[in-house]
Structures are given as C-alpha cells and as structure tokens.
Amino acid sequence: MQSEAAARSDFSRLRYAQCWEDADILLEALDVRPGHVCLSIASAGDNTLALLSRHPARVIALDLSPAQIACLELRIAAYRELSHQELLQFMGSLPGTHREDLYRRCRVRLSPGARRFWDAQPVKVARGIGGAGRFERYFAFFRSRLLPLLHPRERVERLLRGGPRERREAFYDAEWNSRRWRLLFRIFFSRFVMARLGRDPGFFRYVEGGVAGPILERTRHALTTLNPAENPYVQWILTGRHLTALPYALRPENFELIRTHLDRLEYHCCSLEEFLETCPQGKIDRFNLSDIFEYMSWGNYHRVLEHLVRAGRCGGRLAYWNLLAERRRPADMGDRLRPMTAIARRLHQQDKAFFYRDFILEEIV
What is the reported pTM? Predict the structure, then answer.
C-alpha cells in the first residue's frame, strides 16, 4: 500500500516537537500489560515513550518523517544521559541557560542523520526542544501576538490557577469569553490560518464543515470542566512552559520507568502502510495510531484498518483521535472490530489535549 499522506505532504521538516495527544487517556484506553507488543506512531516521541512505563515486551515506533524520528532519537538520548530536572530544562518545561551543553551530552547517542538534523538547529535547541516544531511555533505566535490583545498576563495567570469548577465557569463567562476572544479565536484557528501556520494544507483535504467552532467549544470545556492548573497542554499554549502540570512522559514518577525499558523500543522511518505489508499476522496487541486516519480518504482508511486487524491479535486494541475529519470503524467490519464506545466517550471527556473532536477505541474480535 502506498502512503496517501506521504504522496500529498512534505515531511522533511519537524511538525511536532511534542505529542499533542493525552497519554493519560491513551494508556487507560489501551490497557497495556506486561508482555504486550505495541505499535505506535512516533510523532515527537512522548506517547511512544509513555507506553514503556507499562512494561510491554516491545514497542515499535513508526514515522514516515525523518525529522520526527530525529526528534524521537533525541528524546531517547535525553532519557539515557540526563537527570529528570535536566530533561525538563532541555525540553523547555523549566527555564534553563545551558541547553547547548545538555545537547552535547545527548549528541553522542544520536545516529548520523539525527545528529545532522539537530546540529543544524542551534537556536531551537537553546530555546528548548519542546518548542522546535511547526505546530509549537503556531502556538507561540498565538501566545506572543494575539493573546496580549485579548487578555493581560494577570488574567492568564488567574485562569491557570484553576480552582473549583463553579469558579472556573464564572471566570470564563465573566472575564475570558469576550466578543474579541471569540472573534480572534475563530480567525486564528480557521482552516486558512491553520493551513498556513500550523498544519500542512494537505491535512485538510477530507475536512468538511467549519474548523474553529468545534475547537472553540472544546476550549471552553478545557478551561471550565477540566482544571487548567492540571493541564500541561493549556499551560504550554498560554505560557510556553509547564507550570503546575506535566505530560505523562515528563512526570518524575515515570522517568525511571521509561529509562529502564528503553531497550524494548525500536523505531523505523517508514509509513504505517509499508510496515503493515511485511508485518506477520497476529503480532501486535496494542496500537497507538495518533490521528493519522483523517489524512486518508475513506477508502484508504478502510484498507489500512483491514491490515491492522490482520496484524493484530484477538483482543487487541486500536486507539486514535479525530481532529477535524470523522473516522471510525465501517459497519462491514463489525465481525472483526468492536467499538468500545462507552470507554472512549468517558475518556474523551477527560482529554486534556482538548482540541480533538473525538477519541476512538476499538477492539479486535
């Protein structure tokens, strides 16, 4: 199978320097057990590394972008070479002034290709590798250019302090949700601006309807129903750092678990379609598929699902997100793939990476 995304988009540049998908709900959904074999879309590496904390026998990471594989390689090197506090400084989660020195310590563990990639990014390394991707620069533009026009720093700080839900809702309605906020939000998160600054234009090929409206609704959910004081994704978007919350893979209690199991991780620079063509039947227990299906036509999505089911074991689970295009198991696969809708809906309500329209969990029958 040829990769549809590879044929339509440029994957030479780093798109994501962080995983913008909540590993907490991913891990609960997949229920990874010791001995499982997991297949994971690499992206920036965070959620692939998070899977290691559950003691799987093996995690196979795939990405068709050499830049994303270089990002994963640097993450692995950082877990091997740095302390937890140094890792947070290197990422940009904490302030740091010696990131170039931290990079030099990690550099010796990189492949030649990854070394060339990161050697050419000294400014991004100095600022923290967590902000090095196109998507992170999109949020940085929002944070530096638009947010000051909408809310003063003191108001942003009050939002991020959280508090009881009733107080969060009252604050959002009275002070945050202004007409200017709604107007500029809809402009900045429109299809046109996102395609130019945030995501590849090819990723919108199968998107129908409005884009900004559903994201605005999910943002309200994240700032009121969920607690911003516990949300690392909201904190990074609004401040460029992690203040009172960290993504799963960066939490201190998970650092040694991940580092201890790095030898169980393998990674390949190839498309999911390429890997599945040679993958033996009944090999994989758990699949972290990110949001890759919305970049495919419905027909290609269906064909890839067929190959995933063939590669998976009975009782295996597939987890993936819908951001803008709806993708879920077709009815004619009902005898092979069972939706776990109740669990997925509950977890979607807890999803701290709030902008996704839906979270899908399906089980191989």
Answer: 0.93
